[in-house]
Design goal:
The protein has 1072 residues and is mainly α. The protein is 57% helix and 4% strand.
């Protein structure tokens, strides 16, 4: 066979590396050299991996993927080998390179090209085979890992089902065992198990699909329960056929398992929203995963995975559950909750055989037996002892209070106090006081206070056990319900956001479905911005959605505002005006070439100046362009021949030299043109009036600027405004001499402004003019000064002085009094120009300090520098305090204090305030409320400042050994200890007065004033305040007595409304 190929003939299969009848050098010689046999060629590829095996076989057979030693394809290497054999081979009658002797000789030489190419092909084939094998192994390992994960998840699902099926679980939680198979269309998890308790459907989500549950997570504010939780054990009487007497849950078991739980049985973790991930079941951990919607293409594969795990051997989860119990025979629900909520009724016969039951004179009821078993933790001996204690407590209280209470009342009080005789006696003795404090606590129920929704019996029992101490009960409720309250608040917020992002509302609000992460974050921020008001948020999002739906008609394709910009327009204008704003923007954008090509910000400013009116905005923009356009219009030829000039011959018509409005007005800038148009009245002659005004401005500036070079054309434009000119002449009328000299209002006003600006510039108080920005100049030069605001400048300009616009506004606000305006600028203006550095929120705050300091500019700047220094030192690092607290403490400080002492004193008060507010127990002992008000915060600041200001007169001072080594911290601890001792004494006075429910309870400041009067003696202060309140009550009763007696004498008091206490002197009639 010839190896040569003729030109023009197609390349042979051997050259392409395919199958051929010619001798193959790619694989056969390797076998002759003793290389290991190819496993791909001797064994078939396993099922599911045929493609990888075929690829490897194709490569080993010399396929097109094989490379030569120099990186060339195998076809080219084979051609080179044949060419070498043809030129260097022996010249015999046999075909060149075709005989076995030649092949053996060529391959025996390692340096021959054929051997090198063969070795290269072998190495490449081995590399590809290894890669294919590693891919197959990785795929097999992933399949095995997925199968093991599915098996573990299935076993955990079975264990969870056994827990739910356990006796008493459904009665306690209301969660019934689920039936059926997981449905992929209801959602799935990426891994593990997840309880989704959302409002739409509450389900258990698995990697194979979701199972619908018969459960309802409900609390006030989220799926409101139809009836309040039971206050008493209303179902203690066992029903026939039941093995347990179970008390229903008052707080969801999901909350309890997230906070503490029983890891050896079931452990949950809170996820965002009303979702709870299953961390472990019967001690076996589960992988964490997220919730996702399974596409329809994956449903079949998920059902096949479920069928595969169910066909496997089913473990005995009931035996595992029994082995996992810490106490054999204990109901599962008791180990999950950590208390005895389920009573074993099978132990009641043994309790009835006990002497505590048989020897009782009055046989206990079934309800008492169940209560005793619950108190004894399902232990017969403990239940018997508790049964005797119940009988003793009941008999003792009835005998002690014979004739005052009935046995039923005693039983009710004992049940409230868990049959604690001492506590029940206190509750009976002070029922009115306890009931009054319980009303105060129950009035604070909710998530904001952090106490949740406790029941009245629970609160009264706690108060009786705590000696009617409201503070300790509030602290205990907050501590116990902290985790559940936080979860409830997060669930309510997340549920509200989910309802706003629901598919049926997404299109209404212009949101995508499903919403993106950025959209959800934006809606959450708006929810907080609108004070968590669903109605306000709905109106706002609806207005934005209406604009989004019609955005194609309101904007151009070149500019589509973002959703954040649209929200800003709706917030600024409202829904309808925002549409008009965008429509006018589009109109001006389309006509931009004829208006001088203004940018987007300029167009928006034109529309705002025209109050979103499309026609007025276009007319305004056109007028501005006419004023600033320096390009002369086309020359117009005269129809009549012009007379020839002297020295010229009669010729054709000559063009008139046009004069532009810009040249006529002194080439004003766009900002000056806008300001001039805003300063004149709107109408047909608006452009002519603006031209006349700009001409006057040009003349005025040329006349005054040599005297005051600091003045600009914008200053002259500000002084030439007719409304301002009229107000100036009304405040500073011109004399006859000034009128005779040709003086007018704008000239004098501009001189006053120039004098003030030159003085500020010489003192370094005037900020240099920033780069020209039309919006800044417009806001400062507008003629409508009363409603104008200070223009913003760059941070560099603010740090170097007051802006020019602020100086003009100050002169205008102070009735053109230069001295008063300069004082205001040196004080308030300096602070406002650096408000980012000082952290100032409003102008009113600075002006209040300015008035308080007697309009002392240096004192104002020093005050805010001290505030900034305190914030830099401690304020920004301390929790629960802010700049408002620093301002409050600075306002409480007296005058004549050194700056160093003031800073140290305020820092000490801030440290103490921070420690008080992060300690809930201390805060409750002071404010006696779960949620302190702003008045409470001010009261605490006043007490801290009082103790920091004066060392004398403090009620208590800590020992030096108890203080910190740091002087600043030691000072703060000393101030805090003295303030806490003082505030606790004030609280003692208030607690003492709660024992007199007939009196009006005093305020905290009244109690503090009484304590000061009594020289820090809380008992004496309480008696003093009690006597004062009694006098006030008697005086009020006396006034009411006189008023009703006068009404009775005048006949204006109806007889039907008269009673023995309203009509004095008339005894109460006995009933017939």
């Amino acid at each position: 066979m010839q190896y040569r190929q003729d030109k023009g003939q197609p390349r042979s299969p051997a050259v392409r590396g395919g199958d051929s009848k010619e001798p193959q050098e790619s694989s056969e010689p390797c076998t002759e050299q003793g290389s290991p046999p190819n496993p791909v060629r001797r064994a078939a590829a396993p099922p599911g991996r045929a493609k990888a095996g075929e690829a490897a076989a194709r490569v080993l057979q010399g396929g097109p993927r094989l490379l030569s030693a120099d990186g060339a394809p195998a076809g080219r290497a084979a051609a080179a080998d044949r060419a070498t054999c043809k030129t260097a081979g022996p010249q015999t009658s046999e075909p060149s390179c075709g005989g076995a002797a030649l092949a053996s000789t060529t391959l025996s030489d390692p340096s021959s090209p054929v051997a090198l190419a063969s070795t290269t092909r072998q190495a490449a084939a081995k590399q590809l085979a290894d890669e294919a094998a590693s891919e197959v192994a990785a795929q097999r390992k992933a399949e095995e890992s997925l199968a093991a994960c599915d098996q573990a998840t299935y076993e955990s699902l079975l264990g969870l089902l056994e827990i739910v099926r356990s006796p008493g679980f459904s009665e306690h939680t209301g969660l019934q065992p689920w039936v059926g198979t997981p449905e992929p269309q209801l959602g799935c998890t990426t891994a593990g198990l997840l309880f989704d308790l959302s409002r739409q459907q509450q389900r258990l989500v698995t990697p194979f699909g979701a199972l619908t549950m018969s459960y309802s997570l409900c609390f006030p504010g989220y799926l409101e329960p139809s009836a309040p939780p039971p206050a008493q054990d209303e179902h203690l009487t066992p029903l026939p056929g039941r093995t347990l007497a179970v008390r229903p849950e008052r707080t969801s078991l999901f909350f309890a398992l997230c906070s503490s739980g029983a890891p050896h049985l079931l452990a949950l973790s809170k996820q965002p929203g009303p979702r709870f991930a299953v961390d472990s079941v019967l001690g076996a951990p589960l992988p964490a995963g997220g919730l996702r919607d399974a596409p329809a293409s994956e449903h079949k594969a998920m059902r096949e995975r479920w069928s595969a795990v169910t066909r496997a051997s089913r473990p005995n989860m009931a035996a595992r559950l029994t082995a996992s119990l810490q106490t054999p025979g204990t109901p599962i629900i008791n180990e999950l909750t950590g208390r005895c909520d389920a009573v074993r009724l099978d132990l009641l016969p043994r309790l009835k055989q006990h002497r505590a039951f048989t020897c009782a004179r009055t046989k206990p009821s079934e309800e008492d037996l169940v209560r005793a078993m619950r108190a004894g933790g399902n232990e017969v001996e403990k239940a018997a002892r508790h049964l005797r204690a119940m009988r003793r407590a009941e008999d003792g209280l009835v005998s002690q209070r014979r004739g005052y209470v009935t046995r039923a009342q005693v039983r009710e009080v004992l049940q409230t106090c868990d049959y604690d005789e001492r506590v029940a006696r206190l509750l009976l003795d002070s029922q009115r006081q306890v009931s009054r404090v319980a009303d105060d606590i129950l009035a604070q129920s909710g998530l904001e206070s952090g106490i949740g929704w406790p029941t009245r019996p629970d609160v009264e029992a706690r108060l009786a056990m705590a000696g009617n101490d409201e503070v300790s009960v509030l602290a205990a409720l907050i501590q116990e319900n902290r985790a559940s309250v936080e979860m409830m608040a997060e669930i309510i917020t997340s549920d509200t956001i989910d309802r706003f992002l629901a598919p049926e509302r997404a299109s209404l609000y212009g949101l995508s479905s499903p919403p993106t992460t950025e959209e959800r974050r934006r809606v959450e921020a708006l929810y907080d911005e609108f004070g968590r008001s669903e109605e306000n948020l709905h109106h706002f999002l609806f207005a934005v959605g209406q604009i989004v739906s019609s955005l194609d008609n309101l904007t151009t394709p070149a500019w589509r505002p973002s959703r954040c910009e649209l929200e800003g327009y709706v917030r600024e204008f409202g829904g309808d005006l925002a549409k008009a704003f965008l429509r006018a923007n589009r109109c001006l954008t389309d006509a931009a070439r004829k208006l001088g090509s203004p940018d987007r910000a300029t167009i928006a400013r034109y529309v705002r100046a025209a109050e979103c009116n499309e026609q007025e905005a276009h007319a305004f923009a056109l007028a501005v362009w006419k004023l600033v356009n320096t390009k002369p219009p086309k020359a117009v030829k005269s129809k009549t021949p012009a007379p020839p000039a002297r020295g010229r011959s009669k010729g054709g018509n000559e063009a008139k030299a046009p004069v532009t409005l810009a040249e006529k007005c002194g080439f004003p800038s766009r900002a000056e043109a806008e300001a001039a148009l805003l300063a004149v009245k709107a109408g047909k002659d608006r452009l002519a009036s603006a031209v006349a005004m700009l001409e006057r401005v040009d003349v005025l500036h040329r006349f005054i600027s040599p005297t005051f070079p600091v003045l600009l054309r914008a200053d002259a434009l500000w002084a030439a405004a007719e409304p301002r000119q009229a107000r100036y002449l009304s405040a500073k009328p011109l004399s006859e001499e000034e009128r005779a000299l040709g003086e007018d209002g704008p000239r004098q006003l501009l001189r006053r402004l120039g004098k003030m600006l030159q003085d500020l510039d010489e003192r370094g108080r005037l900020a240099p003019e920033p780069k020209p920005r039309a919006e800044a100049l417009l806001s400062g030069a507008a003629a409508t000064a009363p409603a104008s605001v200070y223009a913003s400048a760059t941070s560099e300009t603010r740090n170097r002085g007051v802006p020019r616009e602020m100086a003009r506004q100050a002169l205008d606000d102070h009735d053109f009094d230069v001295d008063a305006a300069k004082r205001w600028l040196c004080g308030v203006g300096t602070v406002l120009a650096r408000k980012e550095h000082f952290g100032v929120d409003s102008t009113e705050e600075v002006e209040a300090v300015f008035e308080k300091t007697g309009k002392d500019a240096a004192a104002v700047v020093s005050h805010f520098e001290t505030v900034a220094e305190v914030m830099d030192e401690v304020g920004s690092r301390l929790p629960a305090v802010g700049r408002s607290d620093v301002v409050l403490l600075m306002g409480l400080d007296g005058e004549g204090c050194s700056s160093a002492g003031l800073v140290a004193r305020v820092c000490a008060c801030l440290r103490g305030l921070s420690r008080i507010f992060i300690d809930e127990g201390t805060l409750l002992s002071i404010c006696r409320a779960a949620a302190p008000t702003e008045d409470d915060r001010r009261y605490i600041c006043e007490c801290l400042h009082r103790c920091a200001l004066s060392e004398a007169g403090q009620p208590v001072s800590p020992e030096p050994s108890e203080l910190s080594e740091d002087p600043a911290e030691a000072n703060a601890e000393r101030v805090m200890a003295a303030a806490l001792a003082y505030m606790r004494k004030v609280s003692e006075v208030q607690v003492y007065l709660t024992t007199f429910p007939e009196l009006d309870q005093p305020s905290t400041r009244a109690a503090a004033a009484a304590l000061d009067t009594a020289d820090f003696d809380s008992k004496a202060a309480g008696r003093l305040l009690r006597d004062e309140l009694r006098k006030k009550r008697q005086e009020a009763m006396r006034e009411a007595y006189k008023r009703k007696l006068e009404e009775y004498k005048n006949g204006t008091l109806s007889v039907s409304r008269v009673s023995h206490d309203t009509l004095p002197g008339v005894p109460k009639q006995a009933p017939a």
